[in-house]
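go over this record:
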Amino acid sequence: MTDQIQPPDLSTDRDFDGASFSAIYTTAVTVSGGVAGHGRASGRARSADGVLDVSLRMPAELGGDGRGTNPEQLFAAGLAACFHGALSLVARRAALDPAGIAVEATVTFGRDPGHGGYGLRVGLVVTWPGVAPEIAAPLLEKADSLCPYTRMAGQGTPTPITLAP
């Protein structure tokens, strides 16, 4: 018998109250070891709790061996998972079954002509069988407004960088 996973008791209606950011969950991932090339790190990415522990490698398209994951894949997974969760939430609120929702995130790494450095382009494709586009469209917009990953990708996010003592 498989236990049904119960979603956490979170609500956009009551989880935030105040004039400043209110943390609900924090995690940390450390990348270390390996070699760097083209401004790209290899090595190991490990979460503080040890649940995430992956080998990082340059993709074959960038001259690497492609025998590990890379930052773009990790970001795409987080982006797709976050948007999937937000869309599932708004679907349930609209009395629609979110079980058929699939979200594909595409992350493209390339040169940014604005500053000559590197940049990312991201995109999402949502598959939702049985739901008409005119029904899905406002729910996609609502999910976009709830998903911190899509807001971050579109608007940026403060990123303080400090050197550890």
User: Anything to note?
Assistant: The mean pLDDT is 87.
